[in-house]
Amino acid sequence: MHVPIAKEHNDTEKIVIFIHGLMGSPAQFADLASMVYDNGCSYISLLLPGHGASAQEFIRSSADDWQRHVQNVISEIRDKYAKIYLVGHSMGGLLALNASLLRGNKIAGVFLIATPLQINLFHFQSLTCRLRLLIYPKEHPIKSMYLQSYSIDPSNICLYPLFLKPCISFYGLIGKTKKHLAEVLVPVYMFFSANDEAVSYKSAALFSTGLRNAQRTVFSISKSWHAFYYADERKIISEKLLDFINL
Q1: What's the start-to-end Cα distance of the chain, in Å?
Q2: Percentage of residues in the chain with pLDDT exceeding 90?
Q3: What is the pLDDT of residues 143-199, one digit of tens each?
Q4: Is the dihedral of CA 86, 88, 189, 43 positive or negative?
Q5: Strand ranges (DSSP E) for 75-165?
Q6: Angle, alpha carbons 111-30-147 (nearest 5°)
Q7: Cβ neighbours for 239, distance < 8 A, ≥ 6 positions apart
Q8: What local confidence, expressed as pLDDT, does residue 127 receive?
Q9: Which residues, at least 6 apart from 51, have a Cβ–Cβ distance to it below 8 Å?
Q10: Number of folded domains that form the chain
Q11: What is the mean pLDDT of the chain?
Q12: Strand, helix or coil for residue 1
């Protein structure tokens, strides 16, 4: 079930906000959220507008709606915590970077996982991965994870052509974020997989160059997909996230 999740500690000055990507789900962060909570941090795992519901609701949503929702949540909790960390997967990382530009948000750092500045949809490797996803049975661990992380009700496939509208809005968000990368001043950790079928690995270099005024660190993994992470690489991400919020 795709619902926002939040757990708070009464005696911490830190909170982590998890932001999923386009058509994603808060469920993608279950392990990372549990880890930060077990280590003394409060957390909120967001459900963005248009997600977790019908296709009709999704096609009515836009990047402005998603960014506004992130800002509203930050505004609600920023007086309660001294340090707010944003963790974004894919498009969620773009929303996180833009939220960090408002100094009053008290963002202590941004942690990016597979966040795009360049998309990889039509390369041979990407097309091969997508074909494999179609062929895999539902029980296959990779396909099962993709099904779990897809938060839009698939029942009305007639509306799928209208998904173009929010997808165009997503591409606009990429362009907007590119323009403002030099304005990001908070520390940024970034993870990119060479096997990501959606996000070009070139995004790592583009971020590293664009975030020239931020303390930034790029981490590379080699096997994981865009929304599926092998246990050993997921462990690396978990460890680095814990290091990040303890800087």
Answers
A1: 34
A2: 84
A3: 999 999 999 987 776 777 888 999 999 999 999 999 999 999 999 999 999 999 999
A4: positive
A5: 83-89, 107-113
A6: 100
A7: none
A8: 81
A9: 2, 20, 23, 24, 25, 58, 61, 151, 152
A10: 1
A11: 94
A12: coil
Burial environment of residue 121 by CB neighbours within 10 A (0 to 12, 13 to 18, 19 or more): exposed
Q: Exposed, middle or buried by CB within 10 Å (0-12, 13-18, 19+), for 231?
A: exposed
Give the pLDDT of residue 157. Answer: 67
What range does the domain containing 83 cover?
5-245
- Taking residue 31's Cβ as centre, other Cβ atoms within 10 Å add up to 13
Instruction: Say yes or no to pLDDT of 40 above 80.
Output: yes
How would residue 123 be classed by pLDDT, with cut points 50, 70 and 90?
Answer: confident
CATH number at residue 122: 3.40.50.1820
3-state secondary structure 192-245: EECCCCCECCHHHHHHHHHCCCCCEEEEEECCCCCCCCCHHHHHHHHHHHHHHH
Scored b (16 or more CB within 10 A) or e, 156-174 reads eeebeeeeeebeebbeebb
Q: Which residues contact 204 (CB under 8 A, 6 or more apart)?
A: 190, 192, 218, 220
Q: In angstroms, rounded to a whole number, what is the distance separating the alpha carbons of residues 176 and 174?
A: 6
Output the six-digit token pair for 149.
């992380």
CB-CB contact of 112 with 207 (8 Å): yes
Q: Can you tell me the mean pLDDT for 67-71?
A: 98
Phi and psi at residue 243, to the nearest 5°: -60, -40
